[in-house]
Write a structure and sequence with these properties.
The complex is a heterodimer of chains A (318) and B (337). Chain A has 318 residues and is mainly α. Chain A is 65% helix and 3% strand. Chain A is built from 14 helices and 2 strands; from the N terminus they run ααααααββαααααααα. The N terminus and C terminus of chain A are likely disordered. Chain B is mainly alpha-helical. Chain B has 2 domains: 47 residues, no CATH class; 255 residues, MetI-like fold (Orthogonal Bundle). Chain B has 14 helices and no strands. Chain B is globular. The chains are: A mainly alpha (318), B mainly alpha (337). Chains A and B meet through α1, α2, α4, α5 and α6 of A and α2, α4, α5, α6 and α7 of B.
């Protein structure tokens, strides 16, 4: 698909700012400036409203189960909700760290595998000429465009056939974190290949040609020249994959179901919302949502200029 | 490599063979993995779609083979004759298309307008605004969807409270029914001649919050590529602000925005998070989209064969959408050059 071929050409906010700073000699008339500021302030309010609301609810000291009025500035503050959520967020006997460890296993396992085997394929697609290149790329792209729902139904049946007996452990592959990680890899691998290929396409070939003249083999060029050069893209792809695994819900919920010890953060979060959550105070939900989002959101915020381009290629597959 | 020992007397040929094989060796790990956990399941899905595949066929001990039923699953879906409530295939497809289209229009228009505002020469605190406006993008979608689900709660949600607070300022009592809307479940349509439930508008609001910032980022880049002398020339010709926007800004934005809008359409078309976590398809399955319905067929109803046929439908629908949008993109590519 030609439409998403150039992920790294997307404008980068920081660079854009630097470029415009030069031609700002012209001053804006005061009335216009005030109007513009009012518009921007209004947009800021709409953007911040949910964030302030959830933050204020999480530190509200009154320990109310449901808010009864709009409190954007809570009366005082307390981290009690955070303490409770860290100990035991839901009625099930699993702590926040236990849930986070399960999410982390899926996120790390799937993103590392997807990037490791994705980068060699990306290199082949970007640099090598071979028969069937076009059709294999179309196959990758076709899978990339498919929503993950379309793959997990047969995957559920397929993985359900395997029992793993290993080192004293015996479990059904489908109902395990390993099975979930496999399903997540299935969703991430095409994205990793496509995103890394897009990056490799933008690296000039001079260094590789120089290495080839010096007699380096294809493998040496790949390991000594291309891999070091593509570290930033590997980090970006890895992080976007990590983000996908960290927040994975679809497969985790369908595959793991009632086995509470294998629950992930996302399953627990949904069990704390709305009609499922008669017993969850909203301050606990708010604290949980913030603890869940904070690690990935902070990284994303500070490295946004590198990550936004990858997002546009499908980092957040539904 | 198998070739090395066989071709010793002809080193040149060895190298050529190795060069021919090498690309496939680089591809091997990825395609072995994808073959097992992507391509094989996709083929298996087609097989499942022709069978009456349910929970009983899951047993690994003494398995019961699923009976072959031909196109029955497909026919039952197309005729909306499934044993589940509120299932209407055509309505589902039309709602899904409208959901994606309406979102993209709102996101692109808002994104462009806000990018233009932020790009005005001499605007103070521009950097602060740009940093704040990216916040919706950095928060994981599952958290955005669940937080908005609680925000639209009829009794304890921030949206109704906000309306009550604003209404209080202009003297409307807080018990006015307009401030106690059951956003996600109200059965009556808010606008009588538009067949869309209130929950759709709630979802549109949440997704707009989530969606416009990336469009603004794309539009900002395109705006900054417009040469300044074009505006000066327009100034000299006596063009006003709107005329400059229409004749200079829009033609330059179009080639950048259209591919992104098309991409946004496909993403929104498959956006699982909002319908699933916010409305759960309420009221009466009217805010369900294809991906959430497929998930429910398998996960809640255990109708695996039907869900497989449903996914095949989804695949072909997406194929049609992609072909149409690709043609659109190509049509505008020549425009850009």
């Amino acid at each position: 698909m030609a439409t998403i071929a150039t992920p790294r050409r997307l404008p980068l906010i920081g660079r854009a700012r630097a470029r415009t700073r030069g031609n700002e000699e012209r001053r804006m008339p005061l009335g216009r400036q005030i109007l513009m500021q009012l518009i921007c302030l209004f947009i800021t309010l709409t953007v911040l409203f949910p964030i302030i609301w959830i933050f204020s609810m999480s530190i509200d000291p009154r320990n109310i189960s449901r808010p009864d009025a709009l409190n954007l500035i809570p009366p005082g503050w307390s981290f009690d909700a955070y303490r409770r959520v860290l100990e035991q967020p839901t009625n099930n006997p699993i702590s926040f760290l236990g849930l986070a460890a399960n999410s982390l296993k899926i996120a790390l396992g799937s993103s590392v595998v997807a990037v490791l085997i994705g980068v060699t394929a990306a290199y082949a697609f970007s640099r090598l000429r071979f028969r069937g290149r076009e059709s294999l790329m179309i196959a990758i792209l076709g899978v990339l465009m498919l929503p993950s729902v379309a793959v997990i139904i047969p995957l559920y049946v397929f993985l359900n056939q395997f029992r793993i007996d290993f080192a004293g452990l015996s479990f059904n592959l489908r109902a395990s974190l390993l099975g979930v990680s496999l399903a997540v890899i299935s969703a991430q691998l095409p994205f990793a290949i496509w995103n890394l290929k897009g990056y490799l396409d933008t690296i000039p070939r001079d260094l590789e040609e120089a290495a080839a003249v010096d007699g380096a083999s294809q493998n040496q060029i790949f390991i000594r020249v291309v891999l070091p050069l593509s570290t930033p893209a590997i980090a970006v792809t890895g992080f976007l994959g990590f983000l996908g695994g960290w927040t994975e819900y679809l497969t985790a919920y369908m595959f793991i179901g009632g086995n509470v010890q294998d629950w992930t953060l996302s399953i627990a979060l949904n069990s704390m919302v709305g009609q499922f959550a008669r017993t969850t105070p909203w301050s606990a939900f708010a604290a949980f949502a913030i603890l869940f989002a904070l690690p990935v959101s902070v990284v994303f915020f500070f490295f946004q200029r590198y990550l936004v381009g990858g997002l546009a290629v499908g980092g957040v597959k539904g | 490599m198998a070739t090395t020992s066989a071709a010793l007397p002809q080193p040149a040929r060895t190298r050529r063979v190795r060069r021919n094989v090498q690309p496939y060796l680089y591809l091997l790990p990825a395609f072995v993995v994808m073959g097992i956990i992507t391509f094989y399941p996709l083929l298996f899905q087609v097989w499942m779609s022709f069978h009456d595949f349910g929970l009983k066929n899951f047993r690994t001990v003494n398995p019961v083979p699923a009976p072959f039923i031909g196109l029955d699953n497909y026919v039952r879906i197309a005729e909306s004759k499934l044993q589940i409530p509120n299932f209407e295939f055509l309505r589902l497809v039309l709602f899904n298309l409208w959901w994606a289209f309406s979102n993209v229009v709102v996101h692109v228009v808002l994104g462009v307008l806000i990018a233009v505002v932020l790009n005005t020469k001499g605007l103070l605190f521009r950097g602060v605004y740009r940093a704040l406006f990216i916040l919706p993008v950095v928060i994981p979608s599952i958290i955005v969807a669940t937080v908005w689900r609680n925000m639209f709660d009829p009794d304890a949600g921030a949206v109704n409270f906000l309306f009550q607070a604003v209404g209080g300022l202009i003297g409307i009592p807080a018990d006015n029914p307009a401030f106690h809307l059951n956003w996600l479940r109200q059965a009556n349509d808010p606008i009588s001649f538009i067949p869309l439930p209130l929950a759709y508008f709630a979802m549109l609001t949440a997704n707009t919050w989530l969606g416009w910032p990336l469009n603004a980022v794309v539009a900002t880049g395109a705006l900054q590529s417009i040469p300044g002398d074009l505006y000066e020339a327009a100034d000299m010709d006596g063009a006003n602000g709107w005329q400059k926007f229409r004749t200079v800004t829009i033609p330059f934005l179009r080639p950048a925005m259209l591919p992104y809008a098309i991409y946004g359409f496909v993403i929104t078309f498959n956006l699982f998070f909002l319908p699933y976590f916010m409305t759960g398809g309420e009221p009466f399955g009217r805010t369900e989209i294809l991906v959430t319905q497929a998930y429910r067929l398998a996960n809640d109803r255990q109708l695996f064969g039907v869900a497989a046929a449903f996914s095949v439908y989804l695949f072909f629908l997406l194929l049609v959408v992609t072909l149409i949008t690709n043609r659109l993109a190509r049509a505008t590519k020549s425009y850009a050059d």
